[in-house]
Amino acid sequence: MLLALVLAVGLAWLVTAPLRRPAPGAGEDPRVADLEARKEAKYREIRDAELDRVQGKLSGEDWRAADAELRREAIEILRQLDEAGG
Amino acid sequence: MIPTLGAACLGCAFLCALYAAWAALAGRHGDRRYTESARLAVYAMAGLLTVCVLCLEVSFLRDDFSVELVADHSSTTTPTGYKLTAMWSSQAGSLLLWAWVLSLASSGVLWLTRSRLRELVPWATAVLAGLAVFFTGLMLFGVVSSGADSFPFTRLDPAAPEGVGLNPLLRHPAMAIHPPMLYSGYVLFAIPFAFAIAALVTRRLDAAWIRATRRFALVAWLFLSVGILLGSFWSYNELGWGGYWGWDAVENASLMPWLVGTAFLHSVMVQEKRRMLRTWNVSLIVGTFALCLLGTFLVRSGVLESIHAFGVSKVGGPLLGLIAVVVIGSAALIVSRLPDLRGGKRIESLVSREAVFLVNNLLLVSLCAVIFWGTFFPLISEALTGDERSVGPPFFNTVTTPLAILLVLFTGIGPLLAWRRVSAGRAWRLLAPPAAVALVTTLVLAAVSDAASEPPALVMFAFAAFALAAVGSEFARAAAAQRSLAGGGYARALARVVSRNRRRYGGYIAHVGIGILFIAVAASSSFQTSADVRLRPGESASVGDYEVTYLEPSATISSAEQRLTFGGLLDVRRDGERFALLHPSRNYYSSATTDGVRGFFEGEATSEVGRKGGPGGDLWTAMRPDLAPLDGTIDAADRRVERRADVVVRKAGEIAGTTPPPQMREAVVSRLQGQEIFALKDAYLEDPPPVDFRVNVNPLVIWIWLGGAIAVAGGLVAIWPAPEARRRRVSDIHAARLARDLGRA
C-alpha cells in the first residue's frame, strides 16, 4: 500500500510538470508540421503520376491533366506554408 | 515483494490512464500543457505496465506458486522458454499483454505526433487512454470480483507446492509467438481507430489522420498476418487432424479484422490520392477495431466452442459492453458527421485504380461478412430457434471460394491501372500480357495435370498466374523506365526504383505473396490425397503414389514433463524406392483431474506429426494408437498402485507406531505410478496394439507459409521509411519545378 502511495505521488509530480509551467506563447504556427506532411504527400502523388506516365499507364494527355491539377494543389500548400512561416 | 510491486504498478497504471484521459480532454481547446501532461501520463503508464510484465515474468521464472496465475499455468518442470511465454496462456496474462502493447503503441504515436495534429491529438489521446482505463480496470476488477480471473497478481495462501503446468497443446514454438502477434495486431489497430474518432469529433476529415497512423495500421496488419500464419502452422503440425485451417471460431475471429484491415489499407490510398471514400474509411477502421475487440472477446469469453477458448469467464460481459460502446458510439458519430464526410471527388472511370480498389474492398468486406455469419450462426440459431446449430467447413469453403477467386483476379488488375482513368486501348495493352499468361497456364495445367477435374482450383490458378504476371510486368516496366533514365543494369534499376517507391512496390511484393498463398491453398485443399488406415507392425497400405509400412512401435517417457509418448516408425516408399522414414507419435500427459495411470489417457494429448516436405508438397502422417487393448493393463496397474501403497503405508505406521501423514501416501503413490508407467511402456512395446494412421499428401502446402512470408516481407518494405536525404533531394527538385510553374503562371 505504501509502495503504491509513493509510486502514485512520484508519478503525479512527474506527469503534472507541464501544468506547473506558464502557458506557452504562440511559438511556431501549429499548421506548419501538418502542411509539411501534406506537401510531402502531394509530392509523392506527383512522382507516382510521373511513374505511371513513364510506364505507359497514363497517356500524355491524361498525365498532363493530372499533373497540372496536382501541381496546382501543391502550389496552394506551398502558399499556405509561406503564410504559416514554414 | 515482486508480485506486490506488480500489483502496485498496475494500480498506478490505471490511475495514469484515468488522468491521461482527463488531461487530454482538458487540453482539447488548445492549452498544450494539458495535452503534454496527458502524453507524459501515457508514457508513465507504459513504464508501469512494463514493470508489471517484468514482475509477472520474474514470478514465472522463480516458480513463485504463491501467485495463482503462475501456479495455474506453469510448474517447476515447465521449460524456461515456455515459462516466459506462459503469461499469455492465461486470462489475466493476456489482458496484461493487451494493456501493455496498447500503452507502448500509444506512447509511440503520441511521441511521433508531439508537434503535429494539435486538434486531433487530445481526442486521440483520450480515446487511447480510455481504452487503457478499460483494460487496466478490467484487471483490477478481478481483485474485487471473485471468479473474475482477470487480476494477474492474485495470491495463494499458502502457496501451492507445485504448479499445474502449461497446457501441453501450447508447448510449441509457434504457439509461444502466435498469441502476442495476434494481440499486437488487434491492439495496434486501436491507433488509427483513435485518430479516426478524433478526426470525426473535430471534423478534420482530410487525410491527415490517415497519414499520421498509416504505418501503425500497416504494423498491425503485419502482426496479424504473422499471428495467423503461425497459428495455421501450429495447427498443421500439432493438432493431428491434417489441416492448417479448420474454420474454428477463434481462427475466424482473427481472419475477420485482417480482411477488413486489408480493405482499409487499400482504401486509405484512395482517400489520400483522390479525396474519396471518407465515410467508407472511417467505417472500415471502426469495423476493423470492433472486430479486433470481438476476437479478444471470443477467445476470452468462451461463448463459442473452440480449441482456443480457455473456459467461460466473467470478462466476456465487460468486453461485450466495450464492443457495443465502440460500435454504437462510432456509428452515431459517423452519422452526425455525414454532411462533412460527403463531398470530395467521384470516381471518374471504372477503368481506374480507385475503381478496382473499391471492388477489392467490397470483396474483402463480403468475405468478412459471410465468415461473420458462419461464425456466429450457432448463437443466431440458438437465439431464434432455441437450438444451437453450427455451419461447418463445407459452408465456409462454398461461400468463400468464389469471393477469394475474384479477389485474386483484382489483386492482379489493381497494380496495372493508373489513378483517375485509363483509356480502353491503353488498358487492353496493359492487361493483355498477364491475361495471355493466365490463358497459357490454364491450357498447360488442363493438358498435363488433373487440374481440370477441380474447376474452381483451375480458375484460381489462372487468376493467380494473372496476378503474378501483372506484378511481374509492373516490376519489369519500372526497371526499364529507370534504366532509360539513369542507365545501369536491370537489377540495379529495379533495386533503385523499389527503394524510391517502397510503399508501391512493397505492396506489389505483398500481392505476389498473396497470389502464391492462394495457389497453395487451392492446390493443397483440392488435390489432397488422404487416407485413414489401421495398421499393426509389419502391415502396409497404399496412399496415392506411396506405399506406407508400419515398421515398429516406439514408446518413451519424459519424467520432467510428465509425458508418455507412443510412436510408430513408418517406411514410405514410392515406385519401390524409399521416400522417407517417418516417425509420428502421440503424447499423453498426466491429468490434473484424474488420478493414476488412467489419468494419462484422460488428460490432454498432442500429436507430433511425421512429415517429409518439399516445394512440390508434403507427405504428412499422424497416429492414434488404439488403447482399448491396454484398458485392462491400465486398470490393473491402478489397482496395484493402490494396494501396494496401502501395504507400504500400513507397514510404515506399524514401524513408527503412529498414523503416517497423508503426504507420505501421496509420495508412495507417485513413485509406484512411475514404476507402472514404465511397465505400461514395456507392455506397449511387447504387444503393440493396432494404430490408426492418417496419411495425407498435400501438394504445394509449404507455399502457404512461404507466400505468407513474402507478403509480410512486402509489408515491411512498404513500411520502411525512405532515406531522409533522398526524400529531401527529390522534394527540392519538385519544389524547383513548382517554382518554375509558378513563374510561368
Structure commentary:
The complex is a heterodimer of chains A (86) and B (745). Chain A is mainly α and 86 residues long. Helices cover 73% and strands 0% of the residues of chain A. Chain A has three helices and no strands. Chain A has helices at 2-15, 31-54, 60-84. In chain B, strands 2, 3, 4, 5, 6 and 7 form a six-stranded antiparallel β-sheet that branches. Chain B contains 24 helices and ten strands. In chain B, helix 1 (2-26) runs antiparallel to helix 2, helix 5 (91-112) runs antiparallel to helix 6 (120-144) and helix 16 (424-448) packs across helix 17. The termini of chain B are far apart. The model of chain B is unreliable at 725-730 and 741-745 (pLDDT under 50). Chain B folds into four domains: 1-166; 172-376, no CATH class; 414-527 and 703-744, no CATH class; 529-699, no CATH class. Chain B is of the alpha+beta class and 745 residues long. In chain B, a hairpin with a 2-residue loop joins strand 8 (610-614) and strand 9 (617-625). The interface between A and B is large, with 44 and 60 residues.
In terms of topology, how is this protein built?
The complex is a heterodimer of chains A (86) and B (745).
Chain A: H1 2-15, H2 31-54, H3 60-84
Chain B: H1 2-26, H2 32-61, H3 68-73, H4 80-85, H5 91-112, H6 120-144, H7 173-188, H8 190-202, H9 208-238, H10 249-274, H11 278-301, H12 316-336, H13 338-341, H14 353-385, H15 393-416, H16 424-448, H17 455-486, H18 490-500, H19 502-526, E1 529-535, E2 540-543, E3 546-558, E4 563-574, E5 577-582, E6 585-589, H20 598-602, E7 605-608, E8 610-614, E9 617-625, H21 631-656, H22 662-686, E10 691-699, H23 702-719, H24 724-744
Antiparallel strand pairs in B: 1-10, 2-3, 3-4, 4-5, 4-6, 6-7, 8-9, 9-10
